[in-house]
Design brief:
6 strands; about 35% helix; about 160 residues; six-stranded mixed beta sheet
Length: about 160
């Protein structure tokens, strides 16, 4: 099925965020966000507003994440309504030898909304998956599916 114009615009929001990250530019990172957007970082920090998103990214991109390269794969986009979509995104930061604490990847839930004909990110929930014992058959099945999806995106990236 061909991708819709709205789907492409949502993918472009993610691409703009990555472009800002790779440029080390907090303002550019925050540009695709709504003025009152919510952002939850992999550390669990929660902030609200494009200005704080920009300032926070300017700070981390000039210090702990300075010089890193980020990439993203939009795994799926689901429309809850014609003007509200949820995207599942995998982010990867290229490893840097002197910063082994940088996670291999993160997974993110992005809520995008369309106001006055323009899409923006309303909520961004980023998390780093971790390993734990398997709870049961359903947990095993969904975990295997998640790992398979990750491996597919790794193969595309290579």
């Amino acid at each position: 099925m061909p991708e819709s114009h709205d789907e492409q615009e949502i993918r472009d929001l993610v691409a703009q965020f990555v472009e800002g990250w790779n440029a080390g530019d907090g303002d550019l990172c925050a540009r695709p966000f709504a003025e009152d957007a919510e952002f939850t970082a992999v550390t669990g920090q929660h902030i609200r507003g494009r200005d704080l998103i920009a300032r926070g990214h300017a700070e981390i991109l000039s210090t702990v994440f300075r010089g890193t390269r980020n990439s993203a794969t939009v795994n799926e986009i689901s429309f809850l309504r014609p003007d509200v979509a949820v995207a599942d995104v995998t982010f990867r930061i290229d490893p840097i030898a002197d910063r082994p604490w940088i996670p291999r990847y993160s997974t993110c839930g992005v809520v995008a909304t369309k106001d006055h004909g323009r899409w923006s990110i309303a909520a961004f929930r980023n998390m780093v998956p971790f390993e734990r014992p398997v709870a049961g058959p359903l947990d095993k099945q969904t975990r295997e599916a998640a790992h398979a999806a990750f491996e597919r995106t790794e193969a595309v990236r290579a």
